[in-house]
Write a structure and sequence with these properties.
The structure holds two protein chains of two kinds. By secondary structure, chain A is an alpha+beta fold. Chain A folds into two domains: 2-34 and 131-190, no CATH class; 40-113, 2-Layer Sandwich (Double Stranded RNA Binding Domain). Chain A has helices at 2-15, 17-31, 57-67, 115-124, 133-162, 167-190; strands at 40-48, 73-80, 83-90, 93-99, 105-113. In chain A, helix 1 runs antiparallel to helix 5 (133-162) and helix 2 crosses helix 4. Chain B is α+β, with helices and mostly antiparallel strands. Chain B has six helices and five strands, in the order H-H-E-H-E-E-E-E-H-H-H. Chain B has helices at 2-15, 17-31, 60-71, 121-128, 140-170, 175-195, and strands at 46-51, 76-84, 90-96, 99-106, 111-118. A five-stranded antiparallel sheet of chain B has the order 1-5-4-3-2, covered by helices on one side. In chain B, helix 1 runs antiparallel to helix 5 (140-170). The two termini of chain B are 39 Å apart. The chains are: A alpha+beta, B alpha+beta. The interface between A and B is large, with 68 and 65 residues.
């Protein structure tokens, strides 16, 4: 049994290694953001589209995704008279699109977050409703990783308990952690 | 080195156990959160009113600040969206770990009304999982939880890295583990490339 649990613990640890690193590093980025210099790359470009196939925000977004390398999901669509504005967003990258509605010239401003801020975007990415398929895949990783965290914890507790010489010290540490955390949680809930 | 690493790995996990449970619950619940724009605040669970007289020379933002201070809301981390509602009264929102509070200054009656919209346990845990030493309501219990949560984040990072060390120190040639690591790395790289 011990051998099985140790292998399950190892399998989960390896399977979710990168996911766990993503969450650990992004959490630390959020906590210490004020001391970190956020890296952000901005780029502006103009592209030419076919005015006939770009009369609505969705049609224009489709055109840009098909022929001009934009990827992500469509958000914040606005259409006033002929002018079209929207964003195409994916974790860590946001492109703002402005089309005056004539001449076929589209202005695209792209803001690309650095590595750590992209991790934060992936950390807060959730749900399976995204039009951008990789965002749904990251959400699936989040779900599996969260479930995996329970099994990692459960097998970890079992493995600790099998170490006879660690039981007492471990029990004291576990009890301290539980008392401290549960007390603060309950008091916060009742406040 | 190995023995100490194993000990600290174990102790860090035991002490941070509850944080990992909260993160796990939050991660599972987050998958089922509504998309942006479809979130609706919980129903009003309680109402409270108290008399409040404002100085006539104050603007809305100053009045909101005074009311927020006088309301003495617990577990609240600031107020937002100061505006005039359809009836012309000053209204704003305070977010508490336990749910949203809608605050309205009833100008004619010279009273403040607070609508409490308490969230469920899932919302509460989700709010608590974001706490750290400098983030969250100023209440003592929340601050103390923040220290625990922040410590657990460091403990988690340590455990992830020390876990890899413990594996490689004891069973470096384990074939299926190496294959699994390669597969995980490949899947992550592919997904990262597709996203970036």
């Amino acid at each position: 049994m011990f051998r099985l649990m140790r292998n399950v613990h190892l399998i989960l640890g390896i399977a979710f290694f990168f996911y766990a690193m993503l969450f650990a590093l992004s959490s630390l980025t959020i906590i210490y953001r004020q001391w970190l210099k956020p890296l952000r790359e901005s780029q502006e470009r103009t592209v030419q589209v076919n005015p006939e196939s770009s009369r609505t925000p969705r049609a224009l977004a489709f055109e840009l995704m098909q022929n001009h390398g934009l990827k992500g999901e469509l958000r914040d669509t606005k259409q006033e008279a002929k002018e079209i504005r929207f964003s195409i967003v994916r974790p860590g990258t946001e492109s703002t699109v402005i089309y005056s509605g004539s001449g076929g010239e589209v202005k695209i401003q792209t803001h690309r977050a650095g590595f750590l801020e992209t991790l934060v975007s992936l950390h807060t990415n959730h749900g399976f409703w995204h039009d951008f398929v990789p965002s749904n895949a990251w959400s699936l990783f989040s779900l599996l990783g969260s479930v995996g965290l329970f099994f990692l914890g459960a097998t970890g507790i079992y493995l600790w308990f099998c170490h006879d010489n660690e039981r007492l010290v471990g029990a004291v540490i576990l009890a301290l952690g539980l008392i401290y955390s549960l007390t603060t949680l309950v008091l916060s809930r009742l406040a | 080195m190995y023995d100490w690493m194993k000990k600290i790995h174990m102790y860090a996990g035991l002490f941070s156990f509850m944080a990992f449970v909260i993160w796990g619950v939050t991660g599972i619940l987050a998958v089922f959160l509504p998309p942006p724009g479809e979130w609706r605040p919980p129903a009003i669970t309680m109402q409270r009113e108290f008399p409040f007289v404002v100085a006539e020379n104050m603007d809305d933002k100053e009045v909101a600040r005074e009311i927020y201070a006088a309301a003495g809301l617990t577990m609240a981390g600031g107020y937002y969206n100061v505006h005039r509602n359809d009836a012309g009264n000053l209204a704003f929102i305070a977010f508490s770990t336990n749910g949203q509070r809608d605050i309205t200054y009833l100008e004619k009656e010279r009273r403040v009304r607070i609508d409490f919209r308490d969230g469920g346990l899932g919302d509460f845990l989700s709010n608590m999982h974001t706490g750290h030493s400098r983030r969250g309501p100023p209440d003592l219990s929340s601050r103390l939880w923040g220290y625990y949560n922040e410590f657990s984040t460091w403990a988690f990072l340590f455990m992830v890295l020390s876990g890899i060390y413990l594996w490689l120190a004891t069973r470096p040639g384990m074939r299926w583990a190496l294959i699994l690591m390669s597969a995980t790395a490949t899947a992550t790289l592919v997904l990262w490339s597709a996203t970036r």
